[in-house]
Amino acid sequence: MSIATQIVDQRIVGLLTELEEPFTNELKLGIDQNKRKSAAFVYLVAKTLLNLSDDDTLDGVVDGGNDFGIDALYFSQPTDGEIPITVVQGKYKQTFDGDANFPENGVAKMIDAIGALFDPARGLTLNARLLKRIEDIRSFVAGGAIPRVTAIGANNGLAWNAIAQRRIDDSVRSFGDQVEWRHVGPDELLTLLQAQRPIDTTLQLSGAAIVEPFDFRRVLIGRISVSELAKLAEQFGDRLLERNIRRYLGLAGNRVNEAVAETLRDVDQRSNFYFYNNGITITCTQFRHNALVQSNSQVQISGLQIVNGGQTSKTVQQVAREVGPDVAAAQVLIRIYELPENDQDLVDAITYATNSQNPVDLRDLKANDPRQRQLAESIRGLGFGYRTKREERATASDELTSAVVAEAVLAIWRHRPHQARFSGREHFGALYDIIFAGDLNGAQAVIAALILRQVENRRKRPPADAPDFLSYGSRFVAMLMGRYLLHDLGITLDKLNHTTFVKARTRIEEHGAAYITRAETEIEDALKPLFDGRERTLQRLSATFRRADLVETLTGAPLSATPDQQTS
């Protein structure tokens, strides 16, 4: 009996209680506890591997009839003409032996699904949750984006067998390098779930190194063999990257990682790797070395974390498995910063500075920004909590996360609903100053979040008469609701503050449903001339709600009095 499978099961049992309401009302799961456990396992795998919020994780769970063997599906906005997609299939056994392979037919279903789902011209019969997400993706593909797929087979046992692996290998003829496969079992899942533990280890340097004290800290700059880096990655896995703000992007679907891998595979280019790569940045609480050794010394490191170069480390690990000892011919630059254990702000700043040119999640790094602290204080004054870091979850209705506030403010007060939905990774990057402008106060943030919450509850649990565009246009509905609210209160946005907060909140609670109906009608009217007789498919709807001209149409129309104002 595997300890890891037992611990994972304990987590799943806890999730069954935590997710009982959305499992029942949103996913429409019945009372079968085995099915609920399987769904909770898929949720746990996706959330842990992809580092998603609770809501984003749940949105991607599509398990049900007509699901093409896909239990969860995630994607993000295309970058450099490529759309990253992750498909998850989970197989959860109710026994804890941990000795069963991921089933061969599960792999076969995933291969069939990948071959069919991302072809915009292919007709599909799918459950509603999956179909809406697939058509979102296919609208990007129809516009020229190239799918880059990570296929994850997860179970509480062993990886797939050799026959299944041959199926995967054979699929390369059809998929080329657009699909990357990964198995996740209980041991790897447990490693990712475990709380951060300090890493203490020894690294073998190559050649001479420079060590200097700097402002009560110390810096070591040197180089190590790529094989030494691969050994480090094999030994500690993703624990190395817990302070790194990115997850491994894989080889398929990431050009930088592909270039790293190709250089390491090329015998003639391998020795030039040092000159091509930006190197590895490590923070630690202490490093020790023998200063009397002029070159090839060892350095003992306590509290090691890779804050930049995580992608390189994981790619090196993968290629080293293919190439073997010959990869040692490649060298890589290494920077080791010895910092005080309590200097988290400096660690965050280094992480931001060394990752800012790459796709990163900047929410944690903005948590200590003065604007976030001031906003938190303003929100607390209204009786709400404000969580600024990814690991800080909103556990009650009077708690908000900075991610939700960012999306709501951008959609409602900044009139950018299309960017609120599709540019999430920029909310704390390029769009940060637009969202969290100096005049944003707690009342505006809370009211926006409450408006978005009402609309999202309707999107996640749509009634039979919900419009077909709601899945793609919910942020547009929220934007219009904000306009109606300010109009009916007779104020401009700058007057929405602590003095008008109670009145605004009461009006949203009392008239929110009417606002939603009114907004959906207005959007429906705006859509008619855009389609002008063309078939209104989900693909086309998805593409329509990424257009800024629809925003201009909706915000350019004058507002009339609401029915209750006309009779008052």
Walkthrough of the structure:
With 568 residues, the chain is of the alpha/beta class. It has helices at residues 3-18, 20-25, 33-50, 54-60, 104-117, 128-142, 162-175, 186-193, 226-236, 255-265, 273-276, 310-323, 344-355, 370-380, 402-412, 417-422, 432-435, 442-460, 470-489, 501-531, 538-544, 548-556, 563-566; strands spanning 72-75, 82-91, 146-155, 179-184, 201-204, 210-214, 217-225, 280-284, 286-289, 298-302, 305-308, 331-338, 385-387, 399-401. The chain has a 5-stranded mixed sheet with strand order 6-7-12-8-11. A 4-stranded mixed sheet has the order 1-2-3-4. The N and C termini lie far apart (71 Å). The model is unreliable at 243-253 and 562-568 (pLDDT under 50).
Rounded to an integer, what's the Rg over CA atoms?
Answer: 26 Å
- State the major sheet: 5 strands, mixed
Unreliable spans are 243-253, 562-568
Q: Work out the helix count.
A: 23
Average pLDDT: 87
Structural class: alpha/beta
* End-to-end Cα distance: 71 Å
Shape: globular
Record field, number of beta strands = 14
Work out the helicity level. 40-55%
Strand content: 5-15%
Largest sheet: spatial strand order:
6-7-12-8-11
